[in-house]
Amino acid sequence: MNEFSPAVLQTLRDLVWVCPQCGDAVCSALEGWEDNLQDSQGRGALLWLLGVYGDRVTGAPYLLEDCIDGVRSEVSAEVKTELLTATLRLFLSRPAETQDMMGRLLVYCIGRHTHCIEPTSPGR
After folding, report:
1. Closest alpha carbon to 47 in 28, 68, 32, 29
2. Rg of the chain's alpha carbons, rounded to an integer?
3. Gap between the Cα atoms of 84 and 47, Å rounded
4. What is the pLDDT of residues 49-89, one digit of tens each?
5. Chain centroid offset of residue 115 CA
């Protein structure tokens, strides 16, 4: 399987959320993903999956690196937040492979691009 529609990625994310034992099957399906999604919800779901199961997906660092390389053109704050979270999670399990990309993403997020993640309003 080389392409996933956004709905399929969202369903896979929901499946492993409800049924964590399905994680290995979902990870093996993610191995063949190479197409860039145009839908922010699909990208967010893929990034969530890579963040949670990236230690089981051989190509996870390369998929995240492609997303990091395109972060400047990303308009969705949700996708940027998922990218930052997924990269940090993968860094914790695979530091040697992700150190450089984690650094580049952090430079982007804390540099002049302070809108990398969506701020939350304090409850009143």
Report:
1. 68
2. 14
3. 9
4. 999 999 999 889 998 998 999 888 888 889 999 999 999 99
5. 18
